[in-house]
Model the fold of this input.
Amino acid sequence: MTQDSAFYSSLTALPDHSGSSWRRTLPQQVMAWLPVTLFFPVGIMYAGILLFYIALIVAGGWRENWLRLQQHPLLRPVLLLSAVSLTIALFQSRPAEIENEFWPGLGHYQTYLFLLPFLMLPAGAWQRRAVRLFLGAAVVAATLFVLNFFHLLPDNRLFHSYAMYLGNKSILLGILLAIAAGWMLHELFLYKEHRWLRILMLMYVVAALIFLSKTRTASLIFACFVLLMICRNFRWSWRSMLFIGVLAAGLAAGCKLAAGLPRPASCVINQVQAPPWELAQIRMLCTIQQVKDFSEGRKSTDDDGMRAEIYRITAGLIMEKPWSGHGIASWVPNYRQRAQGLSSASMTTPHNDYLLYATELGMPGVLALLWIWIRQLLIAHGMRHHPDLQVREKAMLLAMLTVAMLVGAMFNAILRDAVFGLAFMILLPLPLAGIQAEKNGRC
Done:
């Protein structure tokens, strides 16, 4: 019986041997620009994906593409998640109230299938170019937030999500800034040239993320990236342990102080007129106090704190059928039945992919999803120890993307909503395309 080498230490980047003609490299050229579309209306992203599919067909080379995909270590986990959802869909009953939502609901669980055509691409210079274009687009996005703050942003539908809070699209913009800031931080350790320019760009994007993007999830994701970088460069010594102890004590004291402060007049940021630094402080205070309310069994008094209510009721749904789940598209009718009269009764998602998967697919669905994300982390670990420097440099990019998905899924519909899901499917090939896991050893 064969087994993967430990933590994919033999991961290899497969180069492109199909020639350098314009037609053959067209998919890579389109893919390099796709991350830029994420910062603009979702229709532009969809058009970019369609253009990529056309380019992939025009380029040909299907035999090489299929062989490349077959050797990719993410293929089986992705297919397993789809198989689990399709099996549950096949055997579940479909009450009349979910008939219209069943097929869209089933489609949401196939989001990772959109990644597979992207993984047909070979590793190449296009990946580095795509990263640079993505980071450049993040700087442009930060500038658009700044222009909007000074009321200089043109009244144009192209920039509407920077001027108005548009739910998931606005949250995505913040998450994209967090990912870009994390990648900039990573590059700051990699490259020595233009160091001060890199520092200024990082500070600029982080400032826009924290003070202007109006999303706590993105700020938390960036904090996790900083922690990830600290762990990667951690050296055991009494100084480092003292630093960690002081930092932990400071955070604990700050949270305790914030929990005892008077509650802000409103936690709905869109209704608060205040400078960005005060808005950031209000969101921090509201978050800490809502967590305190939830831990002490008290109902939050503001609409922004209804997530605790959603989580509590959804947890009860999961306990009813923990292994089989309630079926595809079943969360909405089941939740509304149990949340009648509550402010959260109109919600269409639990704002947590783990809870959604557990409710509709049961534990098999949750485990299949976690297998994909754990596999991504294992691939990143193997890339980190690869002899090729270019492969090693992409390891942290993949690790950060995976952490963003793991953390984002706790508070948002990362895969339930195509706005989030397809954005991550576009970013994942930047470190993942062209990777294969060689088999060795017998047991």
In short: The longest strand covers residues 439-442.
